[in-house]
């Protein structure tokens, strides 16, 4: 029998033994692979693959060592952990029905809010003490002031819990 190094050929049975588990794995996960290929196709059609390719050619491999050092540094890891904590807190805070409804009410009425803010700043009215008292009787202004005072109180309570450096 001639040695593989002498003939430059590999034994076909060894190749089949290496490829068979790969083919079985591909067949078992064909739905996931099809989804991945569809995603890559959509990314290519949208131009995202080209953008990523351009970025990688502009910054890699010369900056790869810097990026690797930076991304594995303690500062970067601490930053990522803090960001995840903030995102978790934000996600938690937005999960309550009251928070979601409040943000929707403000967002859907933002044009009115911003228009009134800009109009008030550009056309200020001189309001005396009696005029201010009359404004306080307006139910919308009273509701807004009560909401802001409640928010300020809750903000004060929350900020007292933040540790000082």
Task: Describe what you observe in this structure.
The protein starts with a helix and ends in a 5-residue tail after the last helix. The protein is built from ten helices and no strands. The chain has about 160 residues and is mainly alpha-helical. It has a domain at about 15-60. The model has no long low-confidence stretch (mean pLDDT about 85). It has helices at about 5, 10-30, 30-45, 50-60, 65-70, 75-95, 95-110, 110-120, 130-135, 140-160. Helices cover about 80% and strands about 0% of the residues.
Fold blueprint:
Blueprint: H1 4-7, H2 12-28, H3 30-46, H4 48-59, H5 64-71, H6 74-94, H7 97-108, H8 110-122, H9 129-137, H10 139-160
Q: What's a quick, concise take on this entry?
A:
This protein has 165 residues and is mostly helical. 82% of the residues lie in helices and 0% in strands. The protein has 10 helices and no strands.
